[in-house]
Amino acid sequence: MDDAQIIELYWSRDSRAITETETKYGAYCLTVARNILSTPEDAEECVNSTWLQAWNTMPPQRPGRLRLFLARITRNLSFNRYNELHAAKRGCGELSLVLDELAECADGKADVAGEYEARELGACIRQFVSALPEREAGIFIRRYFFTEPIADIARRFQMSANNVAVTLSRTRNKLKDHLRKEGYTID
């Protein structure tokens, strides 16, 4: 079943929408959740919550790209679950590494004043990523949106892990410069 048909099932409130979504995107969403969470049970719980949130979100939303829509839901739920599990102390795992890598781009002054500023920052980062060469953007997105391990990215792009790490380091430096120019970091 194609995405448009699945979305129509959601809009007509047909429960087959969840079954079709799980069949087509279950493994994909589980991979997204597992890249963030350390236990398979937590990842599966987030994926199941993804189906519920998709059900509650459509309608009124009609996603243009169902796969990315579901990935965003899964990713957000997984981050929320991760934060719940590590509220007192950061654990080890891929998400901690990713957050540490990106921390060097921010000024560390925390608490960006409100949701509007966060959206503006997100738009600034999207603009930055869209201006990158395709391969560099793909590596950056795989690492910082999907939280894929460097070894997996290296296999996907047929590069050495060291080359991926160097590419990410250079891209983070470019991002830091871009954010500084846009007024998001303080020297």
Total number of helical segments? 9
Radius of gyration, CA atoms, in whole angstroms: 18 Å
Estimate what percentage of residues fall within beta strands. under 5%
| N-to-C SSE string, H for helix and E for strand | HHHHHHHHH
* Biggest sheet overview: none
Envelope shape: globular
Structural class, judged by helices and strands? mainly alpha
Q: Averaged pLDDT, please?
A: 84
Runs with pLDDT <50, length 5+?
Answer: 108-113
Tell me how many strands there are: 0
Q: Helical residue percent? A: over 70%
Describe the structure.
It is a single chain. Helix content is 73%, strand content 0%. The protein contains 9 helices and no strands. It has helices at 3-11, 16-36, 40-57, 66-85, 94-103, 114-131, 134-144, 150-157, 161-181. Helix 3 (40-57) packs across helix 4 (66-85). The termini are far apart.
Keywords:
single chain; 187 residues; mainly alpha; 9 helices; 73% helix
Q: Can you summarize this structure?
A:
This protein is mostly helical. The chain has helices at residues 3-11, 16-36, 40-57, 66-85, 94-103, 114-131, 134-144, 150-157, 161-181. 25% of the residues are buried.
